Amino acid sequence: MRVAFVGKGGAGKSSLAGTFARVLAATGQNVLAVDSDPLPGMAFSLGVKQTDAGLPDEAVEEYEDEGRRRYRLRAGLTGKGVAEQYAVHGPDGVHFIQLGKARGPRWDNARQHFAYQRVLDDLPDDGWSVVGDLPGGTRQPFLTWGRFAETFLVVVEPTSASLLTGRRLARLAGTATAPRVMAVANKVRERHDAERVAEGTGLGLLGLVPLDPMLDEADRLGRAVLDHDPAGATATAVRLLVDVLRTETEPV
Amino acid sequence: MKIAVAGKGGSGKTTTCAVLARTLARSGQTTLALDCDSNPNLGISLGIGEDATEHLISVRDAVDAGDEEHALTADDLVERFGVDAPDGVRLAVVSAIQNPEPGCPCCGISPEQLLGQLARPGRVVVADFEAGLGTVMRLDANPIDVVLVVVEPTAKSLEAGRRVAESVQKTGVGRVVVAANRMRDDEDGARVRTAFPGLEVVPVPDDPAIMDAERRGVAPLDAAPNAPGVRALVDLADQLLSRR
Description:
The complex is a heterodimer of chains A (about 250) and B (about 240).
Chain A: E1 2-7, H1 13-26, E2 30-35, H2 42-46, E3 60-65, E4 68-73, H3 79-85, E5 88-89, E6 95-98, H4 110-121, E7 128-133, E8 151-156, H5 160-175, E9 180-188, H6 191-201, E10 205-210, H7 213-221, H8 225-228, H9 233-249
Parallel strand pairs in A: 1-7, 1-8, 2-6, 2-7, 8-9, 9-10
Antiparallel strand pairs in A: 3-4, 5-6
Chain B: E1 2-7, H1 13-26, E2 30-35, H2 42-46, H3 49-65, H4 74-81, E3 83-84, E4 90-93, H5 111-118, E5 123-128, H6 134-137, E6 146-151, H7 155-171, E7 175-183, H8 186-195, E8 200-205, H9 208-216, H10 220-223, H11 228-242
Parallel strand pairs in B: 1-5, 1-6, 2-4, 2-5, 6-7, 7-8
Antiparallel strand pairs in B: 3-4
Helix pairs in contact in B: 1-11
């Protein structure tokens, strides 16, 4: 499956995407986790020690096109090759690549940025699943960073700002003829919260994840919630999300 | 006076920015709040409600679509496309649009350039930056009085905040103050201090009243003016003003 997590900053995209990728990988699938944010987020949620898992310079070559400097993957290197050679190996067998480190000021990310884009256009197909953690907000995630996805999961917490963002994303998805778009209600405290997310975004609800103090604790400690509390509320809820999505996307 | 509020998404930038702007306005400053986020939500935290916040975006979208005339100057933008928020704060959404006209003062220049054009004696401009590093990294030609780096004591948020602070310090564009939200205990304090050695850190206690306000879509300053978290942000505003 190819799934991308979107939503407002802080809604829980990275936590859910990282956990989702590992849970899926633990079932024996080849999983490539891709973080489109130059600031590290998904690495923490995956429990990957290396937080700047960008592509090395040697994977990228520069060329000129009509006088403009451009970048592509080194000759002969495919997206699958990148996943196999350069992705960081994380817990549960998950493979991980990141857009690359962002350090200011005037940090030039052109090389890594374009190489990463090429990888998105040439992701491994046969037998691989891709789980994407997209940048927060509403900057056309459906057309750019998420163009590989078959399913978008809009992560929404029951706050006014997060719901508004979810609504905007649902609207953008409508204009971008995105594939399937569903909501995941996060940090749910009461039954009504999930209904609020479904009603507020107008999206179908794939599932809900309860507000989890253990996730908060894991975030403070910089640990993956799957390592900190493997049988806890977040892990259990994400396992269910994976099951539901697998049932829906894979013919029995 | 120019204040930029930066940090990771979800760390509390917008809430901090809103309490700051309204407190500055209450103390008699002519205050302009700029929402530079491409996913603008500052209106909600200022207390104008979801519908008015959505309206501001639809106006910006109309400019983008060519259905609304562009503003002629930065001030015209604030005048025509802004709204009045509580306590006399003027709020304008200035986030980047898809189809900018190069050089146009309302859409063809960056939020940080706009911030420079709108600042003047007798007016405080508080800008809620896009999450992450982008806007901060472009600040170098546009000095600012204070860059408020908003963090929470999680590994992700501190790492993002650390890079923001580092970027601002390298360029020397302004004084860095760290607002540490959702602080619970000494361990949180130690985490933040370790991430920002030598920097001024203002702790803001973890406060369920702020979360409740956010769930209800109302301004924390209206819903819980005396809650400890809100009080800490009010004090921070007073402090920024007095140490100018």
